[in-house]
Amino acid sequence: MLLLLSGVSISQESNISGLLAQAEEVLYSDPQEAIRIAEYISEKSDQPAELLQAAYLLTRGFYIEGKYNQALKIGMKFSEEELKSDRGIQIQLNILLAKLLKDLEINSLAVKYSDKAKNSLKADSDTQNWVTGKIIQYGLEKNQKDSLPAPDQFYSAKSKFKKITSSQYSFQIGNIDLDLAEIYLRKFQLDSAEVYLSSAFRESKKEKSGNYLEMKALIKYGEFLFLKNAHATAIDTLNAAMLLAQKFSNLPEQYKVAQAISENYLALNNLKEFNNYNQRADEISTAVGNAENDAVNTAYNIFNSNETKRFTLFRANARWQLFILGGILLLLLLFWGFTKLRYRARINQYRKFIGYLEKRKEPSTTPAPPAIDTSKTLNIPKETEEQLLVKLEEFENSLDFINKEISLSRMALQFETNTKYLSELINAHKQKNFNTYINELRVNYITDKLKNDPQYLQYKISYLAKESGFSSHSVFATVFKSVTGISPTTFINILQNKQESPAA
């Protein structure tokens, strides 16, 4: 029985290459259609190269839809195939898997697939440029920090894509433009951010209207408008993004949009719509969290299954006994090396732990820093500035910052000022943006609890995240490490070891 496809005629069924090209053409504007075509090819074709191309289409299609579990099942399966031809497709597939695994915070597996792609490269300038650009853009280098790369790195990635002879790099360029816009939005350099947002929109218009890049650009533009205090326009922009996210059935992007819309309504003091969209975001967040947990489990299960198969094949070889002794020696060396690295890592963790505690003590053990001259940097009346600083100190001494619903606009309402004044004040006096300021207060709050109340050392990380006002376990872990230099688990282990030590 023939599989029915919308837009695919009977005469095309024998032309697999034509179907692949058709799926590629509609992938970013109609991923569901691309998935249907790729699934048809997977069922009908017996050619390894065609099956691999179909798998790469399916992996990207499910990724665009935010269905990470299905993307990993298909992608990780075909990443294991030993193909002498079409190595370029498999390399691109491995890079996409590395990106997906990094998004799920499975960094060890992300590096494995990134290395697998790099090790498969041959003297093909287009593929080399593509892979190098993606590794820079996605931050897949082993020694690269979790934060966004510096602008120069994105410029480098952009230049790599422009060297590709194929004209189909608009989405790569557009996504890098959005990454650059994100950097400048974080720095409140709105003019620079607007330049790259405009560039991203131009790239999106090179494809069919209503495509994936257009959706991402609309979301980022909504953030830009929020910072410009153009909240009504931001809501219209984000609603357009929501329609595309719903078209793609992409729950993670729908969550981002719903949350952003709620913050704009809060800034407009429209509490009814704020509560409506905030509740909607919470409902979507639960579904997204469950889906991400399933994807993480799938990744580990498939990886373990693949490793088990490799070991089974190795044992089936009649010569496997010749390698037992060498394997034992190798394991001993690896164990010795692992123990040494673990010892060094432990020392490094203790240094970061002590450094963080010393940094917290600095205000009481070192002279007060010189007063900041804000007369030339702030457009705030001096009297207003002093009043806001008093309120900021009262805020820090309260527990308002662990409220999950705290935002720049809500805090501005609480302080009876506007978001621009409050943002400038925090930037000038705290030398950090609003989100970093709130996150550090929350982390310092929970570390004090962990140090002073032994009961907190028994709580799960998810409870600590909720207690300190973070929306999820993963966000809490990422922010905690960025503030203290070590993970929450490591921080707790060090405190527990100090308690158990006779010298403690």
Which series of helices and strands comes N to C? Answer: HHHHHHHHHHHHHHHHHHHHHH
Structure class: mainly alpha
Please report which band the strand proportion falls in: under 5%, 5-15%, 15-25%, 25-35%, 35-45% or over 45%.
under 5%
The Rg value, from CA coordinates, equals: 26 Å
Instruction: Give the count of helical stretches.
Output: 22
Any idea what the shape is? globular
Estimate percent helicity.
over 70%
Quantity of strands, as a count: 0
The residue ranges in which pLDDT falls below 50 over 5 or more consecutive positions are: 1-13, 364-370
Distance between the termini: 74 Å
Query: For the report, how would you describe the main beta sheet?
Result: none
Residue-averaged pLDDT, rounded?
Answer: 81
